Amino acid sequence: MLISVGILFAPAIRFRLHGVFHEKNMPGKFSGEYSVIQTPDGVFLTTPQQSLPVCLPLEFTPETEETARIELTDVTIGINFHWERQENQFFKGSLKIIAEEDHLTAINILDIEDYLLSVISSEMKATSSLELLKAHAIISRSWLIAQCEKSAELKESGETYQSTRENEEEYIRWYDREDHRNFDVCADDHCQRYQGIHKATTPLVNQAIRETRGEVLCYNHRTCDARFSKCCGGLSEKFENVWEPTSHPYLTTIYDGEEDNLPELPVREEEAEKWITGSPDVFCNTQDHQILSEVLNDYDQETHDFFRWEVYYTQQEISALACRKLGIDFGDITDLTPIERGESGRIIRLKVTGSKRSMIIGKELVIRKAFSPTHLYSSAFIVRKEWKDGKLQGFRLKGAGWGHGVGLCQIGAAVMGAKGYSYREILRHYFPHATLETKY
Known about the structure:
It contains 9 helices and 24 strands. With 440 residues, it is an alpha+beta fold. Strands 1, 2, 3, 4, 5, 6, 7, 8, 9, 10 and 13 form an 11-stranded mixed beta sheet that branches.
């Protein structure tokens, strides 16, 4: 099964072809260093020796699949997150370059199992336990196939996918399928981290993919839209509270612990402070350096306060942030009021009150983007206003977890793997009512 992955989005795509490649509309063989550049005079394929006008799309296919490699330079990872950076990445398969609006897009076309080799080593370290790697291989495979099936259904139906509800009183949006029309998935955190074949560095990764080949999670024989996040904070969240308003029984609220200590759900506003400021005995509540160093990539290890966290903004800072990130001028923000929380305590709808206007915003990612230069760790937070001499000074946000919290909790699952749980037990814990089936 071949899939297409959007890797790089830029005015110019720079790459090296290691091995011999062919382009279906151009004669000759291609190897070495190239750039594709979009200019007012057209698109050009350049080498250190020459520049040729070309028509898009271009597609470079390897003559020998097993040994040929594509190297893309200056690929941005962690887009808009606090760990954003650039790196060179290597890929198997073919390279397709297309024009999308005002930029070029580099797309990698490859077999799904080769893709998974990189994904489970990009989302976490390749040194993770075998059971965790197996569980993540099945989740990533399931999610990808489910997205491809959903895209095919939407295309066949002719329906326009809607993910925004906006009027004078509300701005509600979730981020999902509508962002990618010309390829199956992107390579960054919006979909699944896919950072090239150099990330697959251990025999365990190959073993995990090989021993779960074609295996997916299903519900009523339909591939599960399996999700995962870094740290659920002790409670996972329902799918419909984060993405589209569709209920999936296998993506519900799970208490991330061994004991049946599920707090009263949903976590209402009156219970939110106790839960969010507490320290429940759950899998993902760990500071075990050995486990964290095995599951978190180097840049993820820069984040230390993922289970419980807090940030503080002055009134001026938070007002400017919301205006810049949302494009909505609230004036001086005077209050942040949770209107609706999901069962895990994550805020789904938040009322922002300002001197110029007030509005309810959601869902969770919109809220996370609005009140951080990058993203808040999660939308499971409580709001504390701070005053001085009767004047509002700022807002302190105290929160729980890292990520959207739906499905598998990566840090919790890493702890389960370290405790000796099998990949099947890990999947049963995070995806109740789902079954394992072999698709191919």
